[in-house]
Structure formats: structure tokens, C-alpha cells
Design a protein that fits this description.
The protein has 560 residues and is mostly helical. It is built from 21 helices and 2 strands. It has a single domain, classed as MFS general substrate transporter like domains (Growth Hormone, Chain: A, Up-down Bundle), CATH 1.20.1250. It has a two-stranded antiparallel sheet. The two termini are 27 Å apart.
Amino acid sequence: MFKGHPKGLFVAFFANMGERFGFYTMISIFVLFMQAKYGLSAAAAGSIYATFLVGVYIFPLLGGFLADRFLGYGRTISLGIVVMFIGYILLALPTAMDTGFPLIVAALTVIALGTGLFKGNLQALVGNLYDDPKYSAMRDRAFNVFYMGINIGAMFAPSASKAVCDWTLGKSGYFYDARIPALANEFLEGKLADASAFLGIAQAQDASVTLDTLGRFGTDYVNALSKSYHFGFGVACVSLIVSMAVFWAFRKHYKTADLTERQKAKSETLKSQVVELSREQTRERLVALGLVFGVVIFFWMAFHQSAVTMTYFARDYTVPSVGQAAFLLFDLTGLLSVFLSILGLVFLVRKSSNSLTRLLGGAAFAGFGVLAYLRYGGYAATNPFQPQMFQHFNPFFIVVLTPIVIGVFGWLNRKGKEPSAPRKIGIGMLITAAAYTILVIGSLSLASPKALGGLVAPAESQVSVYWLIATYFGLTIAELFLSPIGISFVSKVAPPKYKGLMQGGWFAATAVGNSLVGVVAWFWMRVPLWAVWAILVGACLLSAAFIFAIMRRLERAAAA
């Protein structure tokens, strides 16, 4: 999977991993932070989140334009890292309950701008590495590897945010309880009709709390929780320093790919490498890309529910604690131990393994197996977890499934049956619809969010975590069929002088999809729970039907 690639791919891999670790650390707690600190409704927090994501994925158009026309890819990427760092510093500055909202807005704007300068241009740079005929056949595999780096960073992000938040909250003498922020805000606003339930929950944190001091407790708890989230945002600052160091220190490995068509045209030695397309060829390619962009809008609308409606579902409808076996899935150390032990077993019994590989495989099987058993034995009979912990499943599944998917595509390629890039995208949309069908089925018997009044469902109505985990698994498979393949398709089909801009176009389509995330969140308090997921199923099925209807045109553009 890693063999034969240019070294520049791995520089981009690690630089992107660091940046994505910080970004997803922030994302994993953002809507929870906004609801806790400012008492926002699910719809309002979802709307702010969606608006931010629109900026994150619209600004790559600006970043691509600046790189193509003026700065080049490397300089624009470096500028993006610096700008993002400033934004995360602003977001990490702690303020008291119900204050600092303009600072949050400013921070989000700066982060979105910096991300826009960084994301698309890093992908354009990776694509340039594979314009070399020596590596061109490896383009799709390269973007799968690149994408895995993104998700390794994202995989550890929820655990990092949880660890920092738990530590900070613990320093204030509290522990996390998902019920408290909403109850505290309602009580402080005079909207809580019966404070007795809130009082009992508060006394579990501090036995000295009385009805007279309940307001002070609510303020103190929300301030402490908000502070913990601010510290969680600070993790992103550290990760960006790492990303910056990697990208600047190993520039020599991607230097040859850090050239736009405009820069080549100005060089006497490189002028001959400039690719000129006819107007008709350029138009055909741009139309094909535009059609693909239109389809992926609905994938991202569905996929990015993970930080909004799926987080709400995790918080309000799934059991808040699990037994020992299930908690292995939520404890990233335990989960990775199980995975690495199984991986060691595979290398131990694989026929093609040599003696050294078998030895290392056996050692991994035994060592990580023991570690997993020790983690399991250290768990309590029931183990609480925070809702953001569900978000490590997607990146974990990406890391686990990427080699499998690459292997399957390679096997199909050898048989001459590998689907084209546009066809993979269509299949990905069908898989996305299937993933949300799981939640439709799991939600049929559950009360609507409106019926719950924005509160957590009673214990007898909460469902197994496996409904949500299975959905994440399905979405991950869909993502591997669609996202890295889509980026690869853009890098191949984009007219050379518009490479940065077209990568920005991919993200602009993502931005439109993210804007629709808020539309789905709007339905959260207005329709039955199963209907929220059914909306996503219908949108994905219609998108799949459309892309299969225009398949010949897309495949013709990819083959040109």
C-alpha cells in the first residue's frame, strides 16, 4: 500500500494528519460547547456549526485562486497553517458563562480562512506528484493513503478532547453529566418548572447543594465545563505546530510538485511542461467536475450529521454507559489493542509471511492481546462515556478499512473489473443511504426530540450504542468509495491551470452540503426522529440515481 510512492506524499500525509487532529478535536466538542456555554438550542448550535463549515469549505476557492494565480501551492499552504494557528489561539481563550461570543465568531472566521488556504492546495500538491508518468497509475491509491492520514489524526481527536475536558473539569471538582448544561441554563433563565430533578443531579456532583444554591451551582458547573472545552480547543494549537514543522522541514521532497502552470510558463527550463487544452476540452472537463460536485453535496449533507444530529442522538437516545465488552469500543487504547492483536494474528498465519514477519506478528498478537485483556479487566461493570466519543469510530474504521478497500480495488483491477471513479462515487451514495436506513429502523419506536422537550430520553427509552456504531461503519465504507476517489478524480480531470481552483470547487460543493446540515438539524425538533434519517436516505438515493444517469459522460471526461 505504501510501496513505490514519492516521498512528498508522506510529507503531505503527516502535515495533514497534524492539522486534522487539531480540527477534529475542536469539532468533536463544538456544538456541545455552544449549547453549554450559551444555552443555545440544537437548531441554533447546528446552524452556527453549519455556517462555520460553509466557510471552511468555501474559502478553498479563494485559496486555490491565490495559489494558481499568485503565491503557488507551498506558500499558500504555509500561510494557511499560520492563520489557523491564530484562530485556534482565539478559540482557546477562556471566558465566563454567556460571554465572549464575538471572540468565538472571530476565531471561527479566522480558522475557516486558514483552512481554506491549506486544504485544497495540499491536495493539489499531492495530485501534482502523480502527474509524473512514473507514478500516474498510483493516483487513486495515493489519495486513499493520504486520506488515511487525515483519519489517523481524526481518530485520536475525540479521545484527546475527552481527556483534556475530563482533567480540566475534574480540577474544578466536577465530572461530566450530559444532563446538567441544559437544566442549568433553563433554571437560570427561569424556564424550569420543577427543579427537584435538577437538584438531585446537582447533589450527585456536590452533596452540599441546596435549592437556594442551585443557581450558583449551575453557573459554576457551566463555567467549569466551558473552561474544559476551551482547553480542548487549545490542543489544536499544539497539533498545528507539529504540522507546520513537518511541512517546512521536508520541503525538498515535494519541491518539484510545488509548481503551478503559471510558474512553469515563466520558467525557460519548465515552459515545455505546460499543458495546453483546447476550449472544448476545458469546457468538457469543467462540466464533468461540476456534475460530480452537484452529487457530492448530498453526501456531505449526510456525512457531517456526525457532529450535529448524530451527536444529539448519541447524547439524548443512546444508553450513557455500557458494560465491559462494549466499553472496549469507546476506550481508544483498548480498541487499538484489540485491532493490533488481530492484525498480528493475520501476519502470524498468513502464508506469504516470512519468519521475521511471523515472529513480529506473534509478538503483536500476544502483547496487544494481553494489553486488551488488562484494559478489559480494569473496567467497571458499567462505564459512562461522553457523546463525542462516537466520533472516533469513523476515523478508526477508515484506518482499518483503507487497506482492505485498496486490496479489493486492486484485485478487481487485475481482473479488469474495477469500477471507474465516477461509478465508485455512485456506489458510495447507495451505501450512505443504506447506513442511514439503520437509524431509521432503530428510531421507529423512539419519541421525537420535540416530545422530549430537548432533554435526554428516560433510561427505559434509551437504545443500544450499536445502532449508531453500525451507522458509522456504513458511512465509513461509503466515504472510502467517494471522498478520496472524488479528490483523485478532481486532480486528474481538472484543467492544469485551474488545479487549485478545482480542488477548491470540490470543497465548495462540500460547503453547500454542510449548509444543508443545518437544514436537517432544523427538522430535529419538528418531525418524528425516524423521519430525520429518512430525509437523508431519500436525498442519497436520488443523488445516486442522478450520477448513474450521467455515468457515460463522466467516464468519458476521466478517460480523456
